[in-house]
Amino acid sequence: xxxxxxxxxxxxxxxxxxxxxxxxxxxxxxxxxxxxxxxxxxxxxxxxxxxxxxxxxxxxxxxxxxxxxxxxxxxxxxxxxxxxxxxxxxxxxxxxxxxxxxxxxxxxxxxxxxxxxxxxxxxxxxxxxx
Length: 130
Prior knowledge:
By secondary structure, this protein is of the alpha+beta class.
């Protein structure tokens, strides 16, 4: 399982790639392993606000429908529209082509609550379902 070192991670299994005050958000490979193949994605629109730890969308997989919780707060600058037509992009490339949102972060201090790749990997290993 891969956890890119230059990303930050939430315990809700989303990732954040920071570039200044702009964050790209997606879900982790660990989340995908748990969910199975993604069949559809529901995301908000550009210009909407997301709030840290609140629902911003959902994923439907072969096993369940899962709500997505935002790892940070801010204004949505861009939504990956490709996922509406090809949700399976997430299955094959969750950290690059499978990104979901780009947001302008409202409070950069919120990123202090996120985990590094090493911390997230340790968290995942401690909380794996047997």
